[in-house]
Write a structure and sequence with these properties.
Elements (H helix, E strand, L loop, with lengths): L20 H5 L18 H10 L3 H11 L4 H6 L16 H28 L2 H16 L14 H20 L7 H19 L11 H16 L3 H17 L7 H4 L5 H21 L14 H13 L25 H6 L5 H7 L14 H5 L14 H9 L1
Length: 396
């Protein structure tokens, strides 16, 4: 996973028309209650049955890779992060940030890989190992202690993805493990406590309400489901209401546009978390993909970001047209598209995704192509062009 995914800057000043924290608290979301605490963010049993019968090359290749799985003994040997987590900011010191973040990345990889191995193999060994692994962290109350100040929030940012990586993977495995009730109870309590402790920090003028808020809402939605905590689940849903309410006439998220030459990147970055929240809610019976606020749906944000991919001039006066585009070469930023395509027939998005499959995200959604792609959508991955051929194309 590229370092940039987890490294966020402090948010900039909030435009006047963005929904404030106080306005968000006034939303009446009481009708959103957890209906199926054992429902993961996709139908695990149905997907495993489909994968068992498919002849789709993309899915079969990914299944073969994942089914081998990691060693449970090696996973359990990893020490929990039971001290105070402190991470230097990425942009001031990327090398120091990357070194300090290695244990965090290893945790995200471990839980996501174990969940993927279970889905691919159908072997309860991996689900059981994941529960044992998380129970070890729960016993140590890991991740609960992190340094935070308004001027040094990186540990707060970095632990966001630890929490939702754990919650998403656990939601896949928990229904398959029925002989460790005490471990399940400990993990449930730990995740719920982490969610409340972490989200109790409101943040500054930007990260109270921008993509960092969506990231906190993502773990809140999934952990709310897992622990049947309606209030946490509603916190997750509130991010979707907030984002749609904030949207400009073009379909842009104003707090992400404030990022200047990374505006397109952060518009896309916000969609990673919003689409995943919508998917969690969908599994509880709430179609937030159809939710409209002030004349906007999530479709407007999706079409706008695709417009900026094709031509940064689509940003108009919202941000500079000299946009950073490096993230487009990293499929983890695009994994949300597989989930969205399960809810929308979008030819432009489908064509954008085709040459980039399979799409994975280590913490938000996991092996998205493997879990969500319709086998009829694409039979084979499109290989990268050979360097000498590319050179020939460029010369002409």
């Amino acid at each position: 996973m590229a370092p940039l995914l987890s490294a966020m800057l402090l948010g900039l000043a909030m435009p006047a028309h963005a929904m404030t924290y106080e306005q968000r608290q006034q939303l009446d979301l009481s009708s959103y209650v957890v209906t199926a605490p054992d429902a993961s963010y996709f139908d695990v049993e149905a997907r495993m049955a489909l994968l068992d019968k498919t002849d789709n090359d993309i899915l079969l290749n990914r299944s073969a890779q994942l089914a081998r799985g990691p060693s449970c003994r090696q996973m359990l040997a990893k020490p929990p992060l039971d001290g105070v987590i402190r991470i230097p900011g990425y942009y001031p010191s990327p090398e120091a940030w990357e070194l300090a973040s290695v244990p965090l990345f290893e945790f995200e990889d471990a839980v996501t890989n174990l969940a993927g191995a279970y889905v691919a193999s159908g072997d309860g060994y991996y689900a059981d190992c994941l529960v044992r692994f998380l129970d070890k962290w729960a016993r140590q109350d890991a991740i609960a202690s992190f340094y935070y100040s308004r001027h040094d929030p990186q540990a707060w940012y970095s632990t966001e993805s630890l929490i939702f990586a754990a919650a998403f993977a656990y939601s896949i495995a928990r229904p398959a493990v029925d002989d460790r009730p005490q471990a399940i109870e400990r993990i449930d309590r730990w995740l719920n406590r982490l969610a409340w402790t972490h989200s109790s920090i409101r943040g500054g003028k930007g990260d109270c309400c921008n993509n960092h808020f969506y990231r906190r809402a993502l773990y809140a939605s999934m952990i709310g489901v897992l622990t049947k905590d309606d209030e946490l689940f509603q916190f997750g849903v509130s991010a979707v209401y907030s984002a749609l309410s904030d949207m400009t006439p073009e379909g842009a998220f104003p707090l992400e546009m404030a990022r200047g030459r990374r505006a397109s990147h952060y518009q896309n970055y916000a969609l990673i978390y919003l689409v995943n929240i919508m998917q969690v809610a969908y599994r509880q019976g709430y179609d937030l993909f159809a939710l409209e606020r002030h004349g906007h749906t999530i479709d407007d944000a999706v079409q706008f970001v695709l417009d900026t991919f094709e031509d940064p001039a689509a940003l108009g006066d919202l941000a500079t047209h000299a946009q950073y585009r490096g993230f487009l070469d990293d499929a983890q930023y695009l994994a949300w598209m597989e989930i969205y395509l399960r809810h929308r027939d979008d030819l432009r998005l489908s064509e954008y995704v085709r040459p980039r499959r399979p799409l994975d995200n280590r913490s938000a959604g996991g092996y998205a192509t493997f879990y969500f792609m319709d086998p009829g959508a694409q039979r084979r991955a499109i290989p990268d062009a050979e360097p000498d051929r590319l050179a020939g194309i460029e010369r002409h």
